């Protein structure tokens, strides 16, 4: 599969980020996480060549399979992000391989990652802001207490919050979701837990997320093209 259009698509994304940040009055950097789920290792290589070193995968094993097939020198430049739900029995595969786990959604999972990690592991707390039953994440009410508990684990570095908006074209729904996560982050900050990262926004709604203060966005389809029939980030 060819990814020749990636540089042009990336330029369009960056231009949209600049427009939305200007409209929202934001000046912070926005990390683009290139989601290569469903694509082969050639997508990772294309992302690296385009200047994207933050690579997101939904499943641990898919990331490890790609890593095995890649050139070792090139692979050293990757910052792997785990963005999908992580089962506790797979936690042992994460330390030393992923730079950031964006999908920590319970104290039990955090404690397992803490137990398995020999070096500090960066994590985000996933919050199910929209309260969708089919999605992972703690509730907004649980988030402040969980954040304090996770921040107290010695081997984990809690960097921020992550969420997914409902799959809808309704910009108002998207905006309310992202704005609520930002407000939640600010509330937790008042409790003394500093959370600089707001990972929110995917291919269909990243512009709204950036306008609402996202510091990281997770993009697949808008960079690499469609994967076929599956719903994609």
Care to describe what's here?
- The chain has 233 residues and is of the alpha/beta class.
- The chain has one domain (6-224): Alanine racemase (TIM Barrel, Alpha-Beta Barrel), CATH 3.20.20.
- 39% of the residues lie in helices and 17% in strands.
- The chain is built from nine helices and eight strands.
- It has helices spanning 6-24, 41-49, 60-69, 72-75, 107-116, 143-151, 171-190, 206-211, 221-224, and strands at 31-35, 54-57, 79-82, 100-104, 121-126, 156-163, 197-200, 216-219.
- It has an eight-stranded parallel sheet.
- β1, α2 (41-49) and β2 (54-57) form a beta-alpha-beta unit.
User: Which band does the percent of strand residues land in?
Assistant: 15-25%
Largest sheet, described in full? 8 strands, parallel
Q: What class do helices, strands and sheet pairing give?
A: alpha/beta
Task: Describe the oligomeric state of these chains in a short phrase.
Answer: single chain
Task: Output the CATH class name.
Answer: Alpha Beta
> Which range best describes the helical content: under 10%, 10-25%, 25-40%, 40-55%, 55-70% or over 70%?
25-40%
Q: Mean pLDDT, nearest integer?
A: 94
Write down how many β-strands occur, each being a DSSP E stretch of 2 or more residues: 8
What's the number of structural domains?
A: 1
Rg measurement, Å: 17 Å
CATH evolutionary superfamily: Alanine racemase
Which geometry do the CA atoms define? globular
- For the termini, the CA-CA separation is 19 Å
């Amino acid at each position: 599969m060819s990814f020749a259009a990636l540089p042009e698509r990336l330029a369009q994304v960056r231009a949209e980020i600049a427009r939305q940040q200007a409209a929202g009055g934001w000046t912070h950097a926005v990390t683009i996480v290139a989601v290569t789920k469903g694509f082969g290792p050639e997508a990772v290589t294309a992302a690296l060549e385009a200047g994207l070193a933050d690579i997101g995968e939904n499943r641990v094993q898919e990331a490890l399979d790609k890593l095995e097939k890649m050139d070792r020198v090139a692979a050293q430049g990757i910052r792997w992000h785990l963005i999908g739900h992580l089962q506790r029995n797979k936690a042992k595969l994460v330390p030393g391989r992923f730079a950031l786990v964006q999908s920590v959604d319970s104290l039990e999972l955090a404690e397992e990652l803490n137990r398995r990690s020999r070096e500090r592991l960066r994590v985000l707390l996933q919050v199910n802001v929209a309260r969708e039953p089919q999605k992972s994440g703690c509730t907004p009410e649980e988030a402040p207490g969980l954040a304090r508990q996770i921040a107290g684990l010695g081997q984990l570095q809690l960097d921020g919050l992550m969420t997914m908006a409902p799959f809808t074209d309704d910009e108002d729904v998207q905006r309310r979701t992202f704005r609520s996560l930002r407000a939640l982050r600010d509330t937790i900050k008042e409790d003394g837990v500093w959370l600089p990262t707001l990972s929110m926004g995917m291919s269909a709604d990243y512009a709204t997320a950036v306008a609402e203060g996202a510091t990281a966005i997770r993009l697949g389809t808008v960079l690499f093209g469609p994967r076929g029939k599956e719903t994609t980030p």
